[in-house]
Design brief:
By secondary structure, this protein is an alpha/beta fold. Helices cover 32% and strands 26% of the residues. Bound molecules: adenosine-5'-diphosphate and magnesium ion. The site of magnesium ion (MG) has 5 residues, from α3.
């Protein structure tokens, strides 16, 4: 392998990350909206963090920014999955906290949706080995009443370009 090929390979395979400080719920909403613009079918975002960290707030803001007709975006705590039609494609919003087994992930149609739709998944640890390797991982940490630290991690090079919208 040539040195430049090796470097490109390492860049493609190694974990990249970006940390943002979200100083208010409104700033989280703006960040979600900015990221929403670059999402396409086949993009999966995994949202991790404790209860109240802002996973649903982020997903709701992102979905609402892409809807052409305003709609409620309830937390999928009990339904596990809610879907929305947008000009950029169908969005699946999942909350897997109450999932009893990873078999259910396939029954819900999520594994297919990872390939064909835009997916936003809360509690993705429940996916086990069904977790898509090319997903963007967003981790939320509570740093104060109204402040959160957001860390984005990814290995698939497509996200390096998409996340330019958040580097400003
Ligand atoms: N900077 C912030 N970003 C996101 N949510 C925030 C922020 N500051 C305060 N909050 C509040 O924290 C709560 C997050 O709740 P939610 O999004 O349901 O959390 P989760 O889905 O992670 O359990 C909301 O009440 C939201 O208004
Ligand atoms: Mg939630």
């Amino acid at each position: 392998m040539q040195l430049t090929d090796a470097r490109t390979y390492l860049m493609r395979m190694s974990t990249q990350f970006l940390t943002l400080s979200l100083t208010s719920p409104e700033q989280t909403t703006r960040t979600a909206r900015d990221l929403g613009v670059v999402l396409r079918n086949g993009d999966t975002i995994l949202l991790t963090g404790d209860v109240g960290a802002g996973k649903t707030h982020f997903a709701r803001s992102l979905i609402q920014s892409l809807l052409t007709t305003p709609e409620d975006v309830p937390s999928p705590t009990f339904t596990l999955v809610q879907t929305y039609e947008t000009p950029q494609g169908q969005i699946w919003h999942a909350d897997l906290y109450r999932l009893s087994s990873s078999i259910e992930v396939e029954e819900l149609g999520l594994t297919d949706a990872f390939d064909t739709s835009i997916c936003l998944v809360e509690w993705p640890d429940r996916l086990g080995n069904l977790r898509p390797a090319d997903a963007l991982d967003l981790s939320f940490e509570t740093t104060g009443d109204d402040t959160r630290r957001l860390t984005a991690r990814w290995t698939d090079a497509k996200w390096s370009e998409k996340l330019d919208v958040l580097r400003k």
